[in-house]
Amino acid sequence: MNILIFGKDGQLGKAFKIVFANKAGGQQRIHYAGQAECDLANANTITVLLNQLKPNLIINAAAYTAVDKAETEIDLSFSINAKAPEVMAQYAVAHGASFLHYSTDYVFDGSKGGFYTEDDPRNPLGAYGKSKAAGEQAIEDTFANLPAQSNANYAILRTSWLYGDGDNFIRTILRMAMEREELRVISDQHGIPTNAEWLAKVSLDFLLNENGQIKSFPSGIYHAVPSGQTTWHGLATLAIQSAIEAGASFNVKLDAIHAILAAEYPLPAPRPMNSCMATTRLQALWKSEADINKRAKLLESWDEAVKAYVQHLVHSKLI
């Protein structure tokens, strides 16, 4: 079985390498593609690579994620976030392959009072969110023309506030806490921090059986985030507190992490004020006793994962 993972140099791509290395079973041939192997802004290079490797499973862990730059790099963001996954979906449909694509909480406008479900309408605010929403739509439209006899299927996993091995909010906050005596962090935008390794494990639970072979799964959109919710201020405070408990020292004191409103920190791209998502479909899919461990993973709290991540950064001297 051939597996092709796009985005090898990103946080999620790196997480897949770790999780696959620790996963027993299966006779997979796993190929990783980054910018050096495939320019996702060039649809032809994607097609060439797919035809060369002939994957049975395509995992697109790559994306254009520069939220603010997307406001001026609209064509590039749409090339990578909309056109590239469409090309991958077209290959999957034509060759009977399975396709896993990742999307984002930014496809929502943030006006909902509670947790978003998979059935809530997309209404992105900025160029980045619009490009990701266009990618979702392109995949759905491509698979709408799936031949009846085809074994191809797809899943779009929406996630949020991703962190792992690479640049992310947590690492930025910890670095700033070493440099400054005060921090001002937004406290009225709500979401769910998601660990990249956690997401990779959930993804493989979804995709592969105990023997490492591709499972049959219902095509569609699924939310993949841990339990709970927080704000950027709550995440920053927990990260710094966890680092202090692990032995790190900072210039900033906890009472100098000031909560501010998003309106006080204007950015080029609008963000959803609420991007909390419910994992309704995955929980429904994993409702049997045999899936109890998978279901339990969805119920793991975001804060425990953040604490463990920060402790690892401190003990590994990565901050």
- Roughly what fraction of the amino acids lie in strands? 15-25%
Gyration radius over CA: 20 Å
Order of helices and strands: EHEHEHEHEEHEEEHEEHEHHH
Strand order of the largest sheet: 2-1-3-4-5-10
Biggest β-sheet strands, sense, barrel: 6 strands, parallel
- Poorly predicted runs are none
Total of helices? 10
Q: In words, what does this structure look like?
A:
The chain is of the alpha/beta class. It is built from ten helices and twelve strands. It has helices spanning 11-21, 43-53, 74-95, 127-144, 169-179, 196-207, 232-245, 280-285, 292-298, 302-315; strands at 2-6, 29-33, 57-60, 98-104, 153-159, 162-163, 183-186, 190-191, 194-195, 220-223, 230-231, 257-260. The strands form four sheets. A six-stranded parallel sheet has the order 2-1-3-4-5-10, with helices on both faces. The mean pLDDT is 95.
Quick structural overview:
The chain is of the alpha/beta class and 319 residues long.
Q: Would you spell out the secondary-structure blueprint of this structure?
A:
Layout: E1 2-6, H1 11-21, E2 29-33, H2 43-53, E3 57-60, H3 74-95, E4 98-104, H4 127-144, E5 153-159, E6 162-163, H5 169-179, E7 183-186, E8 190-191, E9 194-195, H6 196-207, E10 220-223, E11 230-231, H7 232-245, E12 257-260, H8 280-285, H9 292-298, H10 302-315
Parallel strand pairs: 1-2, 1-3, 3-4, 4-5, 5-10, 6-9, 7-12
Antiparallel strand pairs: 8-11
Helix pairs in contact: 1-6, 2-3, 3-4, 5-7, 7-10
